[in-house]
Amino acid sequence: MSNIAVVTDTTSDIPAELAKKYNIKVIPLYIGFGGKLYLEGKEITSNEVFEKLESGVKVRTSTPSVGDFVKLYRDMVEKEKKTLIYSIHVSSKLSGTANSASQAGKFFPQAKIKAIDSKTAATSLGFIALEAARAAQRGESEEEIDSIIEFMIKRSKMFATFENFEYLFMGGRAPFLGKFLAKSIRLKPIIAIGSDGRVKLKKFVGNKKNSIIELYKQIGKDTFYTGKKKIGIFYGSDIKPALELEKMIREDDRIKIDELILTEVTAIMSAHTGPGIWGVTSCPVISERSMTELKNALRNLSEKSKDALKYFSKDWSEKNRAIIKDAVKKLLNKSRDVFDDISEKSDDTFVNLSEKSKVATKDISERSEVMARDLSDRGKEALKDAIKNLYKKSRTASKDLSEKSKKALKEALINLAEKIK
User: Fold this and answer.
1) 240, part of any domain
2) Confidence bin at 361 (pLDDT 50/70/90)
3) What is the model's pTM?
4) Does 64 lie in the same domain as 16?
């Protein structure tokens, strides 16, 4: 859609021609040394950073400022008339870029700016931005683009190895390597970015050759997915191991490639990893058909969940009503039995009085009335006592009912008792 735009940062390793083709805005991070900051990709190259690192110069990096994002968003919102911007950035555990994007988005209430933490980096991030932009060009809805981004964030994998782990350790992105200092000097670490966006150690291997083989093995380990994959291969100052890795992947018939990008790491990445880095990323492809099936499945599941909840709620409610109804019915039956018993006894008493005696003797009649009132009062007292006893039994029997049901039963019993009065 023409009103939707995608923004990412230079850690995404997206080739310039692809960024241009899909109109993806790539905001640069900063490289600093000698007291100056340089815009990555515009004012300094990866090779220049490699040279500084190899000569012993301490290189630092910095995220784009909130002001940098505000300037970019203003052009997109006011000049290009974008109303929905996906700003997808490197893992927040590795950089504050996503936070700067989020803060800048607050300055544009007239547009929806979604600052997204990709929880990854390099070509993993690049593919997420590319697929979001491609979906926008196809005319996908916001909901559909959201689903694509969420899926790719959850399913993307990234693995890397290093000629020298020193730069990564000194940069503070992989502090765990300090625990394996002696081993790291002799062996090559294989690292990954976990689902939480942090760098994690996968294992150690014996040498550079084995480390490249291990990267290849990691790509083929997804036994739960046999469809096509998007694969990214990135490298530092030496492309040869990356080409070797690409050859192994392409020659493996078990790995079905939808798209493969081979790219040099950006200056920011090289500043933290050093010149000797090789890595690979992958993400399963969702075809339009499978996306439709996935959305339909989710929709059906949601509807079934609602129906199940509605049925359960209705069923449970009906059970409660049935229990209460049954309890009250039993109470009424017992009350009737008590009342009938009292009434029958009263009737027997009056039957024993002859009609002649009641007519002939006023005194007998008055006494009969007194007796009737007395019996009636006793009947009511007996009934009230029976109700009290029955209520106690009902309260004990209904302990498994919900508090709401108990309350309803109690109120019904009280109302019944009041009516009897």
Assistant:
1) yes
2) very low
3) 0.67
4) yes
